[in-house]
Amino acid sequence: MKIAVLYGTETGNAEMLAEDLAAELEGDHEVVCKNLSAVDPAGFDAATFYILVSSTYGDGDLPASAQPFAKAVEAKAPDLSGIHFAIFGLGDSEYHDTFNGGGEKLAALMTARGAVQVGERVTHDASGPDMAEDLAFPWARAVVETAANLVGEDA
Amino acid sequence: MSRRVAIVGAGPSGCFVAQALLKARPELQVDVLDRLPVPYGLVRYGVAADHQGTKAITRQFSRLFERQGARFFGNVAIGRDLTLEALREAYDAVVIATGLAADRRLGVPGDDLAGVYGAGRITRALYEHPDAEPLPPLGPRPLIVGNGNVAIDLLRLLAKTPGELDGSDLGPGPTAWLAGSGIEEITILGRSPASAARFDAVMLKELVRLGGVSISVEDLGTAETEEGTRTLEALAALRGHGTGARRIRFVFARRPLAVEGAGHVTGLLCAAPDGGEERFAATSILTAIGFDGETATAQSGSAVRMAPGLYGAGWFARGPRGTIPDNRADAQALASLILADLDAMPATGQRGELLACLPGVVTYDGWTRIDAAETATPPPGRCRAKIADRAAMLSLAAGGDQKESH
Questions:
Q1: Are A57 and B326 in contact (CB under 8 A)?
Q2: Which B-chain residues 211-230 have CB contacts (< 8 A) with chain A?
Q3: Residues B160-215: pLDDT tens digits?
Q4: Which domains occur in chain B, in start order?
Q5: Domain that holds residue A141
Q6: pLDDT at B404 exceeding the cut of 60
Q7: Residues of B in contact with A94 (CB under 8 A)
């Protein structure tokens, strides 16, 4: 399956996790890893499964590198029906209750344009006991398995 | 032969420059120096002990040394162990990323009285920097001057109950100091109106979790910007919070005129918004009004070339403003500038090792031994037991590579 891991990052933690995820999936799939700042919302492809990784910045906001993407989605309003994505969030519960806000906003942005979310949105808590990849790797394997039966079906 | 870059200062800005350089050109030789035996600078000694999530960026930096090929040389001080000229001679590019650590003074009469302390002095001691001065008694009514996140960090740590410090890496000495502080009231006072306060709203919201305090907020005023509105909303949500014994009082729009006291602080005299003067009683004054020190140039910027092959990064380059992510963006811009300069530079010949043969140098392996010792058996409620003593750090670091540093 063609997989694109797209990340929104502020301090680089989401970028590192995205690269780790891409490396983890590379053996079995055709994987690319890209910063959301370099992604054209009009260029989504129904034959590719998109794994989004997004941190949260400030008060539940999107991280800096996802903001141009979000603006472009709002401005271009692309039709994303037939696009499948899964989303993994990063946050820090030490600061506030909206620690998973970045992932939540990005998921809403995608589904509002007709994209279909695969699997649950999971958020890693930087102040929690787990390593991000320990949560993200099994999650990614599960969503990729689910997506294998969906992606490209109605393309 | 591959190009060599030396980065002076292993704090977040220096590490982000190294990361960006190696990501673009994995074949570069990037050496990161620090005058301390341990890396990560501000992340270890400036980010609050109870903000472990923020400190998680060190996972990126350990990868820098473990997988991206950067080398760490700790316990190396420019001017003590080698000259900047020698370093520039041995490397194609040298980046100064030493930060700014000196507390800016209030600049009013009495600001040198006993009982006036800079926030940096206090936080270095709280976070067990090896060069920190001892933690002083603050008395029952400390007053914090400043409206930024450093002021909030200080306030929060002073206000927390011992149980609220669980999960942090605050050491036993600072923990005992806080537990025995006897603080009754903390005033946090700013020169600007509330709407212009530089606190991040999210840092204010965090205070709502404090269990042992009661919070008052005076002179909220009105806001004209979106950011100001956010700040006011967060402050309004704090007003009246809690019924705890320790009182927190936010005061705005007071311009300090003089620190009062004979020999020791007794209060702060301020100009009030109504044009009159107002006295705030205090047993100590903690200034969190910014940092000072030598910077790269008069006109600071994100990517600073001070001379051919010599660059400035982080707060050294941009001045004492900007968060860790801001400095990451700057570091990436600087890395692009350095790479373009390296491409335009004539090839250099064979050069010997400069840093590895310095006596007492701490390698990345040495740091991992210190790190392992600190995290092996932390006390209950703590994630790390920092080693504060330089000699103890050096002896732990030397554990396995005596041969390297004979």
A1: no
A2: 230
A3: 999 999 999 999 999 999 999 999 999 999 999 999 999 988 899 999 999 999 99
A4: 4-101+293-405 (3.40.50.720), 104-289 (3.50.50.60)
A5: 2-148
A6: no
A7: 50-54, 206
> Looking at the domain assignment, is residue A133 inside a domain?
yes
| Contact (CB<8Å) A96/B202 | yes
Residue A153 lies in a domain: no
pLDDT tens per residue across span A12-61: 999 999 999 999 999 999 999 999 999 999 999 999 999 999 999 888 89
Q: Which residue has the tokens 């099994």?
A: A138
Which chain A positions have a beta carbon within 8 Å of B202's beta carbon? 58-59, 95-96
Domain count, chain A: 1
Look at residue B406 in the predicted model and tell me its pLDDT.
Answer: 38
Q: Which candidate from B53, B202, B203 shows the least CB-CB separation from A126?
A: B53
Among A7, A17, A59, A99, pick the best mutation site for testing chain B contact (most B Cβ within 10 A). Answer: A59
Residue in B closest to A126 by C-alpha: B53
Residue B203 backbone phi and psi in degrees, to 5: -70, -35
Q: Is residue B319 very low, low, confident or very high in pLDDT (cuts 50, 70, 90)?
A: confident
* Average pLDDT of every residue of chain A: 93
C-beta of residue B56 within 8 angstroms of C-beta of residue A13? yes
In this structure, what are the phi and psi dihedrals at residue A134, rounded to the nearest 5 degrees?
-65, -30
pLDDT, tens digit, 9 for 90 and up, residues A29-42:
999 999 999 999 99
Residue A51 placed within a domain: yes
Task: Assign residue A114 the CATH number of its domain.
Answer: 3.40.50.360
B54 touches chain A (CB under 8 A): yes
Task: Name A43's Cβ contacts closer than 8 Å, sequence gap at least 6.
Answer: none
* Dihedral sign computed on CA atoms, order A93, A97, A100, A102: negative
Confidence of residue B148 (pLDDT cuts 50, 70, 90): very high
Instruction: Please tell me the distance from the alpha carbon of residue B370 to that of residue B323, in angstroms, as a whole number.
Output: 27
